[in-house]
Amino acid sequence: MSKTKNEYDISFFFPAIRTPKWVALYESLKLSCKRYKWELVLCGPFPLPKELQNIENVKHVKEDGCVSRAVQVGVLETTGKLIYIGNDDTLYREDAFDHSLDHYFKEAGPIDIMQATYVEGGNVQPNNYWTTAFHAAFHVPGIDQTWKLATEPIIPRDYFMEMGGFDCRWEYMDGSTHDFAFRAQRNGSEIIYSPVICGDMEWSPDHTGDHGPIHDAMCLHDNAIFQEMWSVPNDRLKIDYDNYKEQPGVWSRRFPTRVYESYEDLWDGEGYVAEYKPAPYR
Q1: How far apart, in whole angstroms, are the C-alpha atoms of residue 78 and residue 277?
Q2: Helices 22-32 and 96-107: crossing angle, nearest 10°?
Q3: 186 inside domain
């Protein structure tokens, strides 16, 4: 992969479908990152709302594939020295990214990663929550118990691409994010924590709202791949960035019959409901 000319200090990148939330997302980033030059890059099936069209630092990349594939495809269109990979149901706290980037540029080396800590569903976690040692699921032979997690990472863009980015065999980016962080730490990267909480994320369990395909991808597909790969010692390091090309261009869990024209059409067509809806299996 060739290096890109860095037009921005950071690209805030989101694999994204929730168009009604994007204006508030953009406005929160304006408050959170005032002193650095940044762009917002959204990658997914639905176009920008009219309020975000024709804004110089906002870009949309069309992609109908799974979440991990959307990350690979979309990051190719970023131009920041750093990339941040987040979720589009998050609002960011005022000055949080300014403080975090100050800390990153002071403390991080050229291949280091920052976990931009966040609150999900109102639950505040201590920093040791973002470690392999904290979670029983990571207590397996393939995973070093000194490693940290970076589920909302700030990463040098060129390093992300050099490491091969995400392994798109994981449909959702939970497994692919952990896999990337483990490979990077094996390669000598250090993960540091943001000095402040950066964002407040919504939480939709099971099949609530649009979360069903994500829940099913993790429970019925991704978790088994993760266990097979990391439950035994391995030598995973750099992978082929183009691995996303091996995955379907349309994510069938999200679009089982057709690709919808809008987020609202998706809700209507798939019968999503805002109230809690349990998964139809255990």
Answers
A1: 36
A2: 60
A3: yes
Q: How far apart are CA 8 and CA 165, in angstroms?
A: 20
Q: Tell which residue, 267, 78, 85, has the closest CA to residue 176.
A: 85
Q: For 160-186, what is each residue's pLDDT tens digit?
A: 999 999 999 999 999 999 999 999 999
Tens-digit pLDDT profile for residues 197-242: 999 999 999 999 999 999 999 999 999 999 999 999 999 999 999 9
SS3 for 106? helix
Given a contact cutoff of 8 angstroms between Cβ atoms, the answer to whether 251 and 66 are in contact is yes
Are 90 and 32 contacting, i.e. CB atoms less than 8 angstroms apart?
Answer: no
**Model confidence pTM above 0.90:** yes
74-93 pLDDT, tens digit each: 999 999 999 999 999 999 99
Total domain count for the chain? 1
CATH number for 69: 3.90.550.10
Comparing C-alpha atoms, which of 209, 207, 217, 139 is closest to residue 176?
A: 217
Torsion region of 166: left, alpha or beta (phi above 0 gives left; psi -120 to 50 gives alpha): beta
Range of the structural domain that residue 169 is part of? 8-270
